[in-house]
Amino acid sequence: MVKKFWLLLILGIMLTVMVACGNDSAEDNTSDNGDAGETETSSDAETSEVIGGDVENATELSFWTFQELHLEFFRDAVERWNKENPDRAISLNAEVYPYDNMHNNLLLALQSGEGAPDIVDIELNRFPNYLQGEPQLLPMNDYVEPVLDDFIESRFDIYSKDGNYYGIPFHVGATVAYYNTEIMDKAGVDIDSIATWDDFIAAGEKVVANTDAIMTTFETTDIWSFWPMIKQQGSDYFDENGEIIVNNETNVQTLQFMHDMIYEQEIADITPGGDFHSEEFYGFMNDGGQAALMMPMWYMGRFTDYMEDLKGKIEIRPMPKWSEDGNRSAGAGGTGTVVTNQTEHEELAKDFLAFAKLSEEGNIAIWKILGFDPPMWTVWESEAIREDNKFYQYFGEDIFDTLIEVRDEIDSINITEKNPDMQNELLTNTYNSVLRQQSQTPQEALDQAAEVIQ
Q1: Calpha distance 326→78 (Å, rounded)
Q2: What per-residue confidence (pLDDT) applies to 43?
Q3: How far is CA 180 from CA 235, 287, 304, 395, in A?
């Protein structure tokens, strides 16, 4: 009995200490600025800084993003805003969170009615989650509609609902072909002779026959191979009414086309590492492993940052087209910056966001700072856009010539609340079963994807 008494006493003391420590830990992790409320903690932030914090009488606005590169753009925007609007100066309390953490915590904050930031970046594939029911985001129509003719309008449509524009884009995301001219020259291929996908296959056969490289690779763990290729043809996962069309004839034939390039023509392969953002792929591409890559314009920064040996060897051209009058590009990827309905400074937050991303100066900054193809097409031929920078030095001077050439051929994807689930199914099962394991035909795999999402 005595032993039992002391055992219970010791257990009770341990439990009390554990609870106390747990409470102390929770208090220590709570965000000091209060922007995150009960749904976010400062310890989750990978990077945190106050932009413009040294400006007197500045109004503080909070900003969340999942992409640290965007901070440099907003540093420039805040500095320009405060110079032009000294009587309405702002400081931007900017925090960078891991992708999933930020989007999940933002959703919880908006649903609970507290803890959301004033301004936040939302990635395209997660954006549908925030448009369900009554969006907890503020419409930007008063700012977007007067300038819409100067922009690629389809990039605003993907962040809209019921006629309201909520998200302001960072880029067009025009998908293009990146050709390694050193490999193509060795293979005896003029890249300007590649107009169609049939031309692409013929060029690939020369590459394989005359060099140690393959023509291209296809992702199985990311979205950038299949999606632009079907969107070129006017197809998608869902139609404009949100109905599932992922298993339609166009998509089945496209996935079969990819399969055949790997196993029939033998000019392609699975992307090393599974996707175009892996260290394994960067090394493979940098070492001359493949001759061509289809990716959006914003991928230029990956070349300059991770594939330095290819400087001067990569040239950008339109994607091959599927038919004589087919599109040579497709809009892919994106981030919409929004103002949430929890802001206490609605007019200021909206004015600043429009200044940052809807102005001519802001779009030129998008190119100069981030290397993105700015959504305001009217700046593409401006002298400021054509000024020398690291991207021209790497890829040559005709970057925007290519973009202007395909300007009217950049259809954007249809976004629904089921897009995240569809992406997960394709990445988890469809691409692997068809392109890697060959355990299903394209028709079988896409039928299964449609059934799962339905």
Answers
A1: 42
A2: 46
A3: 29, 11, 14, 10
d(CA 245, CA 55): 53
Residue 378 is predicted with a pLDDT of 93
- 329 to 228, 242, 297, 345, 408: CA distances (angstroms): 8, 23, 10, 39, 9
CB count within 10 Å of CB 304 equals: 18
Q: How do residues 326-351 score in pLDDT, each as one tens digit?
A: 999 998 888 999 999 999 999 999 99
Give the pLDDT score at 409.
93
127 vs 131: CA distance, rounded Å = 7
Lookup: tokens for 348:
């200021």
How far is it, in rounded angstroms, from Cα 206 to Cα 192? 15
**31 CB contacts (<8 Å, ≥6 apart)?**
37, 40, 41, 42
Distance separating alpha carbons of residues 56 and 82, to the nearest angstrom? 11
Alpha-carbon distances, residue 173 vs 41, 307, 392 (angstroms): 32, 20, 18
Residue 369 has pLDDT above 50, yes or no: yes
Nearest to 116 by CA among 95, 146, 147: 95
| CA nearest neighbour of 121 among 167, 152, 78 | 167
Give tens-digit pLDDT for 125-172.
899 899 989 999 999 999 999 999 999 888 999 899 999 999 999 999
Beta-bridged to residue 338, according to DSSP, are 120
Q: What burial letters (b/e) apply to 33-63, b meaning 16+ CB within 10 Å?
A: eebbbebbeeebbeeeebbbeeeeebbebbb
Phi-psi region of 293 (alpha: psi -120 to 50; beta: other; left: phi over 0): beta
Of 110, 129, 126, 130, give the one whose Cα is nearest residue 118.
110
* Count of beta carbons in the 10 Å neighbourhood of residue 283: 14
